[in-house]
Amino acid sequence: MFYNPKDGHGLPHNPFSAIVSPRPIGWISTRATDGINNLAPYSFFNAVAYEPPQVMFASTSTKEDQDGTKDSVANILATEVFCVNIVEYAMRDAMNATSANLGKEVDEFAHAGLELADCSNINCARVAQAPAALECKLTQVVSLPGAHNRVVFGEVIGVHLRDDCIVEGRFDVTKYTPLARLGYRDYTSVEKLFALERPE
């Protein structure tokens, strides 16, 4: 099978997100200028640089109570900070609860029954029990082709690691089982590791 995306795929469901998978989930927390906390998962997310450490996530839709975007992006444009919370398998239901299309006045931490903690370097909440959290300052927002496609880039200026996830000086993902997004409504978890030595 071959298709040109501009002509449609002819399948019952779009295969694109299933092809580019698994994808890490950026559980993005922000705080509005009126103090309301927001928390939402984004599967178009990744780390993009080491020095200085930088991450990105993409928002691809809008809400009726925001001006052409979603709460996360609106809050980041106003405050220029955000936090990336890493999602573990044990938090899958809470993560899914925060994906609901809620009004901007709703605190998703409370909605999902999550304990929050304040970030150290930025005015933003984080998921208290997340395996890791990355405090970020906005570097740029890039508009992509399409009505509501925006990519948010941030520099990581603070890192929280849950103590039980550090084993012999390494951040051990097997201690918390990362959750990843596949296509459609499917997810997976990382439970098995193997190593490859890079050729000289």
TrEMBL record:
<dbReference type="GO" id="GO:0010181">
    <property type="term" value="F:FMN binding"/>
</dbReference>
<dbReference type="Pfam" id="PF01613">
    <property type="entry name" value="Flavin_Reduct"/>
</dbReference>
<dbReference type="InterPro" id="IPR002563">
    <property type="entry name" value="Flavin_Rdtase-like_dom"/>
</dbReference>
<feature type="domain" description="Flavin reductase like">
    <location>
        <begin position="20"/>
        <end position="173"/>
    </location>
</feature>
<protein>
    <submittedName>
        <fullName>NADH-FMN oxidoreductase RutF, flavin reductase (DIM6/NTAB) family</fullName>
    </submittedName>
</protein>
<dbReference type="GO" id="GO:0016646">
    <property type="term" value="F:oxidoreductase activity, acting on the CH-NH group of donors, NAD or NADP as acceptor"/>
</dbReference>
<dbReference type="InterPro" id="IPR012349">
    <property type="entry name" value="Split_barrel_FMN-bd"/>
</dbReference>
